[in-house]
User: What shape does this take?
Amino acid sequence: GPFTQMVLGVTMITDVLVIALFAVNSSVVDALLSNLPFDLQFVGILLLEIAIEVGLGYLVGRLLALIMARHAGQWGKGTLLVIIGFGVFTAAHAVRDFSAAYLPFELFLEPLLICLIASFVLANYTPYRTEFMRILEEVSPPIYVVFFTLTGASLALDVLAQTWPIAVALFLARLVAIYAGSFAGGVAARDPMPYNRMSWMTFITQAGVGLGLAKEVSVAYPEWGGSFATLVISVIVVSQLVGPPLFKAAINRVGEAHGRGHGTAGDDREWRALIFGLEGQSVALARLLTSQGWHVRIASRQAGTRPDLDSAGVNITPIQELSLETMHALEAERADAIVTMLSNAENTLVCQTAYEHFGTERLVARMSERDNFDQLRALGVIIVEPSTAMVGLLDQFVRTPVATSLLLGMEEHQSIVDIEMRNPALEGLMVRELRLPLDVLILSIRRGGGMLVSHGYSRLQVGDWITVVGSPESLEIVTNQFVGVPGGVTAVP
Assistant: This one.
């Protein structure tokens, strides 16, 4: 929503300004410690440092683009990125030492600002933004582990014991300043008053940039930098404890959380599907699901004008509008699957309502165009494009005819089902320890939104969705084994 977008934008701008101001303040501190006068020469040196940082950042960004253009593996590129990042920090310290030894003034180059400009150039002026972000996600975990371990090891508890009142005072002062600044900025920007009163709650959290800069201070000024870093890190820790709950509360209060709701689907042994849209394909789908043991209802605004509803042989319910009240009347909270065959905008409305208010696990939308595609994907909707679906189906028939026939239910004595594991007696068992019928094969295990390729040493957890292939008789045995309790969810036909 607009409030969340505003918060993200302000947070990113704040991080950029903090790094830039840190570079300027570092030069000022160097001047104070070196007893240099604040004159035009100092301003010239400061502008020279900024120009060098911008130039180096641009060159590093272009170098990164050359690496991204190479046909190398993800880890190979990631290793080069880490080496270049380390090289930037090393070069910045080398320039500072060289200038202090051979020049009448000292050049302080901020490596974080150089890397920031480099990533900005790569992400906005090259076609490698997506790949760059993916590589960063892959290589960042070990770097985070080392960084936060080093940060924790550098905390001086004896200093913290003496300075904790100052840390609390700094935190409170920061809190007041954030509230005043965010409220005044919101009023100046003519944001809604509820946004202005709550925006401060989203800016309390701080971690990465602040910790990195605090660590830089402790390294650059060993005489007093350690105590200063301990004080700053203490404020950051308090902010991390207070900030996230306040952030969550603000997003919820403005109504932009859009979290998954909770319905009652799966509380009994009957599978229910709700289809929006009345046409030949929806009726055919309803009949097919009904033949597989599903309870299906079709909802349509045009159903009231059709005199041939009884001849369709399926449950068709007329509705007046697409709204939350209508979906409650249709018992959408009990639906295990919701299928939409409407316009793209209407598909998005139905799927978003089902996601936020009922938490429906299986949302399927037939899309005629790619409008709202990303929005639906973010909700976890399975999107079917008729033009590409037929081509993909034919492709699968050519390359894997047997597997495709199984998936489509064309094999008379074989079927594929999804079963939710609810038997606590099987918790922690390995797949190879299960006594399954000989004609049953476990294909995959879905856990927490991720797909696991099953093997004999995969351990089961309650709540896993297990995809199984076998004969109908054997699948019934496996279903009872995985459910294990009365009233548990049975296999999905």
